[in-house]
Write a structure and sequence with these properties.
By secondary structure, the chain is mostly helical. It has one domain (3-122). 81% of the residues lie in helices and 0% in strands. It is built from six helices and no strands. The radius of gyration is 17 Å and the shape is globular.
């Protein structure tokens, strides 16, 4: 895999992971909500106008374009497993930013994910 292909895929993964973190920050700012017939419009507007959520959606849009560029250069059987790195990044970032738990079991799982992605991209 070339450096450009790897960079495109990693940028796509980072943007996707960032989108998740921004969406979580947005929902933290809004708080718990539910959709029902009487509130679907006001809740939708509140979500659409929340800056973190807007940033998360923007990251998703850009990540889609970058990911498609990466897929045009790399087999999907190699590219798709790289999305798993996003889980590892988000688990660490969620622990740091939101105080979510990061147990030894999760860390071992993250190690397996990173090891698996390494094996897939080398083979």
């Amino acid at each position: 895999m070339s450096a450009i292909s790897f960079s495109l895929l990693m940028l796509g993964v980072l943007l996707n992971a960032s989108a998740q973190l921004l969406l979580k920050a947005g929902t933290n700012a809004i708080g718990h909500f539910e959709f029902n017939a009487s509130n679907i419009l006001p809740v939708s507007i509140k979500l659409a106008m929340q800056p973190h959520i807007m940033g998360g959606v923007a990251c998703y849009v850009v990540s889609l374009v970058v990911w498609i560029m990466g897929l045009s250069r790399v087999p999907v059987s190699v590219a798709y497993p790289m999305l798993s790195i996003g889980y590892a990044l988000n688990a660490l970032a969620a622990w740091y930013l939101f105080g979510e738990s990061l147990t030894a079991q999760k860390l071992v799982g993250i190690g397996f994910i990173i090891g698996g992605v390494f094996l897939v991209t080398r083979g």
